Amino acid sequence: MMKSKLSRVSIILFSILAVLSAAESTVNHYCPYFKNRAPSPQSNLENCKWFRDNACCLNHELRDIFSAITTPLKAASEECSKHTSYLMCYVCAPNQETFYEDERLTLCEEFCDRWYTSCQNAIWKGFIVKDLYNSSAEFCKARKFLVASKDDKLRGCYTLTLDENSASFLNMNKLVWIVVLTVAIWTGAS
């Protein structure tokens, strides 16, 4: 009896995973930052390595972007520098069309919060960041970014976990649904 329930659950999970994978693979992502070209594998990316399997940017473009930006934040912590570098990697994200529109980047509120928190003691134009900006939203908007709140379901936004060895942030929604469905099926089968 238990074996048949496990088999049934396994078959259902496999089917769900197959459907989700097929649905994700049929999404035609494009790169508005780079004139709407399609993302592609870029095995030689020196920065933003977690996008190597599928990237909007080319290595020489990314190198130009990183070298053109002089670090305006002085006395920045390592976390601040990391967040700033990860932010610059949005140009490589294969789902760029979901958060970059009309030459404007939309940041997720959580990312903006983490970036501001990690950089609040850095110095910007002679002033400490937290003395210039009262909130993370104010800080990000001063950089000309839009900020999508947690409740804003209509707007896509850029966020990233700070684990450059993992691209799991790209598939988090799929993982959440698999876990939710597994629990629902498991509790219904018992």
TrEMBL record:
InterPro entries on file: Folate_rcpt, Folate_rcpt-like
Keywords, ordered alphabetically: Disulfide bond, Signal
Keyword Cytoplasm: no
A GO molecular-function annotation: signaling receptor activity
One Pfam family in the UniProt entry: Folate_rec
Family: Belongs to the folate receptor family.
Protein name, per record: Uncharacterized protein
The organism of origin for this protein: Paramuricea clavata
